[in-house]
Design goal:
Order of helices and strands: EEEEEEEEEEEEEEEEEEEEEEEEEHEE
Largest sheet: 9 strands, antiparallel
Shape: globular
Strand content: over 45%
Distance between the termini: 38 Å
Helix content: under 10%
Length: 297
């Protein structure tokens, strides 16, 4: 018998310990000196709520699963049927091949074939690597089709600052704007100021499920979100310059509300295949790579 997510790739270095799965290519766990940094899933379980999964070739939602690109209209399967959306890409449940494995890193490959609604083939590579600065994840895609392809990437880690619930944790979110979404389908209807946590503040009773943008960045182009427990320990997630958006979600509508906070790196916002916002157009043979990471505080 095998685990529901297949092979478990165990990584250790510099006090960090991670488990990455063959199925879903997911980050199942991440600890620092025995302290949980992500709210993952058990070895004998499937990932629920997108936990640790990779979101390619689009993150978040596409309205009605329908979009037009290169003059042709495409129809994707509605993987969020209750809201009528195509959600979180095409690789959440696929099996990845470990191209190289070492004590502190694993490189996973997956060939995404052309299919109904996405008639382009992509060669995907995801690398998980541990270092002194924690975990770095690099998601890359090469267009193997003869025509240009639309592309965006994301991931779905749930961060843990300390014992839950998250109400007493302090959030530092360096963003100035957020998308406004409708209540029924969680699709974009506009933007508004989103700087409530630009100065660190307790989450308290805030219910978050929003995409944030206008990120403050350091000289290297990184933007960093932090969560701290009352004792001062916590967790940080950083994104590189290719990630213009962060989805922050307190998981109030799940079976374990407010025990963690999802901070989802996204190179494009919800419904980018229709809006074009942040969308990468991959020429034949072109590769696009974006990195993000998690470290202990």
């Amino acid at each position: 018998m095998s685990a529901p997510t297949g092979d478990q790739h165990v990584l250790s270095a510099h006090g960090y310990h991670a488990v990455v799965t063959q199925g879903c290519g997911a980050l199942r766990s991440l600890t620092y000196e025995g302290r949980d940094l992500v709210d993952g899933f058990a070895e004998d379980a499937m990932p629920s709520g997108g936990r640790g999964q990779l979101l390619v070739p689009w993150p978040n939602r596409i309205r009605d699963g329908r979009y037009t690109f290169g003059g042709a209209t495409q129809q994707l399967a509605l993987t969020e049927p209750k809201r009528g959306n195509a959600s979180h890409g095409l690789v959440r449940w696929v099996s990845w091949t470990a191209r190289s494995v070492a004590a502190d890193r694993v490189e996973l490959d997956y060939f995404l074939p052309a299919q109904t609604g996405y008639p382009w083939a992509l060669a995907l590579t995801t690398t998980y690597a541990l270092g002194e600065d924690g975990l770095t994840v690099t998601q890359a895609a090469t267009n193997r089709a003869a025509e240009a392809a639309p592309y965006a990437s994301g991931a779905h880690p749930y961060l843990v600052a300390g014992p839950g619930p998250c109400d007493d944790w302090t959030l530092d979110l360096p963003a100035v704007a957020r998308l406004v979404t409708d209540d029924e389908r969680l699709l974009p209807v506009g933007t508004e100021p989103g700087d409530a946590f630009r100065t660190p503040a307790p989450l308290a009773d805030a219910v978050l499920n929003h995409a944030y943008t206008g990120l403050d960045r350091d000289p290297s182009g990184r933007a960093t979100v932090t969560l701290r427990a009352p004792g001062g320990a916590g967790v940080a997630l950083w994104v590189d310059e290719h990630h213009g958006w962060l989805q922050v979600y307190t998981a109030d509508d799940t079976a374990t509300p407010r025990t963690s906070v999802a901070v989802e790196p996204m190179t494009a916002p919800p419904d980018a295949f229709n809006s074009g916002d942040g969308l990468v157009v991959l020429a034949p043979g072109e590769t696009f790579a974006a990195s993000w990471g998690v470290r202990a505080l």
